[in-house]
Amino acid sequence: MPIIVNVDVMMARRKMSLTELAAKVDITLANLSILKTGKAKAIRFSTLEAICQALDCQPGDVLEYIPAADNSPSEG
Amino acid sequence: MPVSGPKLLINKKLLFFNKKYLQNKKQSCIFASSFHKQNCLVMQTTKNTGLPKILRYLFLCLTCFGAIWWLLNLSAYIRVGDNGATIRGWVTTVGDSQHTVVPHPDGSGDLKMYNFGERKFVMLEFSEMQGMLKLRYLGYMLLENLKYILVVFGLYQMYLIFRNLDLGLIFRDEQIRRIRLIAVAVLVFPIANQIASRIIAGVTYEAEGHRITTAIPPLLSEQIVLGGLLALMLFALAEVFRSGAILQQEQDLTI
User: Fold this and answer.
1) Contact B21, A20 (CB under 8 A)
2) Complex ipTM, two decimals?
3) CA-wise closest residue to B190 among B219, B157, B155
4) Which of A24, B36, B134, B207 suits B142 as a labelling partner, its CA being 20 to 30 A distant?
């Protein structure tokens, strides 16, 4: 997926542990782990808001768009 | 043992931080209560009803009852004693080609009644064990038993479905697999019945003072049509559950 979740980078910058963030955002460690490993299919605005508030950052700091490499053969 | 000065100070500090943490936690809980509600929505919708629990145990009882019923019948099917061997089961008999004329109860003419054959539960007794050990009779016996096995299997799958429903696991891959298995069982049951009737067709025996001959039942019998329709409905239900499982997976992976 070309959307990269940089929660772990922001956590490292804020020197915050996974457990601490989970407690602040009030989501389970399992769900936070899904988000961190990039397995999540979607994120609610409310969760994003809570994460941004807990990490004191902007949504753009947490999410990043990297275009996927185009493997299809070129025409012509 | 009394606590010394510095340790007591540390304990007090810890207590202070704990209190502070709890206050923060309370605030964050109020702030994040809406997320919690959203996360628990799926569980709440499936938790409160007692119907799945009742159905779960009902199907467990039915499965046990069906298994006992089959085992009791099995002992009758393969009863081998001094007097020979016995096979029991349902057969279709040959009807009369002639119709019977019966006066109408209202007096408005006559009723013509045709007998196209009927289903009878029969017991075929063989004076010698070897008489039963023919492919025809063994096949019939196997198919008759397969029908019981399919019923018990279907009931057990229903029990497993309602057990998962009771546990709140609705749209799962194993549920879809179970619904498909029940659909296959529902489809195979009348087919097994049809084949069993065709295998045994042509046997003549004495009953009720008449000679009765087993006949080939119609290909599109009521059982086959109803079984086919029910199987189609169950396959459609499995597809609905498959779509539900995809939505459930997306919901589970939405943080």
Assistant:
1) no
2) 0.71
3) B219
4) B207
Q: B217-225 contacts: CB < 8 A, separation 24 or more?
A: B217/B92, B217/B117, B219/B194, B221/B190, B221/B194, B223/B189, B223/B190, B223/B193, B223/B194, B224/B190, B224/B191, B224/B194
Q: Give which of B130, B149, B135 is closest to B74, Cα–Cα.
A: B149
Residue of B nearest to A50 (CA): B32
| Mean pLDDT along residues A39-44 | 88
Structure tokens at B233: 């409905």
How far is it, in rounded angstroms, from Cα B193 to Cα B134? 19
A46: which chain B residues are within 8 Å (Cβ-Cβ)? Answer: 34-35, 38
| B38 within 8 A of B48, measured Cβ to Cβ | no
For residue B201, give the amino acid letter.
Answer: A
Give the closest-approach CA distance of A52 to chain B in angstroms.
Answer: 13
Each residue of B65-74: pLDDT tens digit? Answer: 999 988 887 7
Q: Are the Cβ atoms of B255 and A46 closer than 8 angstroms? A: no
**CA-to-CA separations, B27 to A39, A57, B33, B43, B50, in angstroms, rounded:** 29, 20, 10, 25, 36
Which H/E stretch holds residue A30?
helix A29-36
**Contact at CB, A23 and B31, closer than 8 angstroms:** no
Q: Is A18 part of the contact surface with chain B (CB cutoff 8 Å)?
A: no
Contact yes or no for B217/B192 (Cβ under 8 A): no
